[in-house]
Amino acid sequence: MEYPLDSVSVKGSKISFVLGGGSLSFTGLVESNAIIGTFSAGKDTGAFSLERSAAPDFPYVVQNLVFHSGFVRLAGSLYVPRAPGKYRAVVLLHGSGPQTRWGTPRFIADRLARSGVAALIYDKRGSGESGGDWRTASYEDLANDAIAAIGVLRAHRNIDASKIGIWGHSEGGSIAPLIASRSSNVAFVVAADAPATVTYEGDIYRVSNALRDSGWTGKNGEAALALYTEFVTVARTGRGYAELQRAMKEAEREPWFSWLGIPPRDSWVWSWYPRVADYDPRPYWTRVNVPVLLVYGERDRLMPVDANIATIESLVHTSSNDNISAIILPKAPHTLDIQPGPRDSFFWWHVVAGYPDLVIDWVERV
């Protein structure tokens, strides 16, 4: 997955390195051709060993590249199978927040390229090596970034320009129909954990579930959700901050208040939220006339899975497009991975069974 290390320290035969924004810390000793030591992941600890090995011989070539979306410079990597020919291709879209090409996008790009499908991954604007700032961008801006990436693939000598699709998760799944409705060069759409409602409504749904999952029920849960809903209204409309401030002052001694994490007035959230809060993906789904695959985690708590599938299927059918399928991945949360629960022993998180293999199989068939 090629996660970059946050830091590396070498003192004699002792080596320490940190990654994951400080969440994983490794300390070991060099012994012959190995590094042997211990790691910590939050409260959990374990042992590790790293041995020298030959560099892997990948069945694809990675081409690092730079392209532009308007005046914004974007950096990415293109994974192309080694064998000569014209390949189908996928542009991988970002989830919310700062996102680089490393981690899950790198993992999926590897799997695609091994299967004979080229993949373009890139750093979201304002992340990694890309310019711009996603916090000052609208979803239309992010859609234009993806359309620019499609243009890069169309100009590549080893890509079949008629077989380029998009694959987005969460926020990427939300803007996928916007991209497909704007560009006639999208051959298929994969939307994983895609919202099917206005952004701010989905935000309130997410927080209502999170409150219950955290034990804030009854009057505490109702009061907390009411305050968060008031914050959302003020953030998206720019009106009523004085009233919100008074309500926050009254609630600041409540046990759930700090849990809500309402941002201070000087936070970037206040200028970003109005750009995305009223975005509604539903009208764009009615204009998608290419094959669509929906993927959801069975235990997604950020959105109602069955209702979303039914809504998007109905909207796609209105354009006389019957080529839409849906997959629900068992036991998977919104992140589409399996992680230890509160009472489980530690294990490394891993991708849920069937993802991304089922998606790649679908891409090959359509």
What does this protein structure show overall?
This protein has 366 residues and is α/β, with parallel strands linked by helices. The protein has three domains: 7-51, no CATH class; 60-197 and 281-365, Rossmann fold (3-Layer(aba) Sandwich); 199-276, no CATH class. 34% of the residues lie in helices and 27% in strands. The protein is built from eleven helices and 15 strands. It has helices at 104-114, 139-154, 171-182, 199-213, 218-237, 241-251, 257-260, 269-276, 282-285, 305-317, 357-365, and strands spanning 7-11, 14-19, 24-31, 34-41, 44-51, 60-69, 72-81, 87-92, 118-122, 159-169, 189-192, 292-297, 324-329, 337-338, 350-351. An eight-stranded mixed β-sheet has the order 6-7-9-8-10-11-12-13, sandwiched between helices. Strands 1-2-3-4-5 form a five-stranded antiparallel β-sheet, with no helix packed on it. The chain has a two-stranded antiparallel ribbon with strand order 14-15. The model has no long low-confidence stretch (mean pLDDT 95).
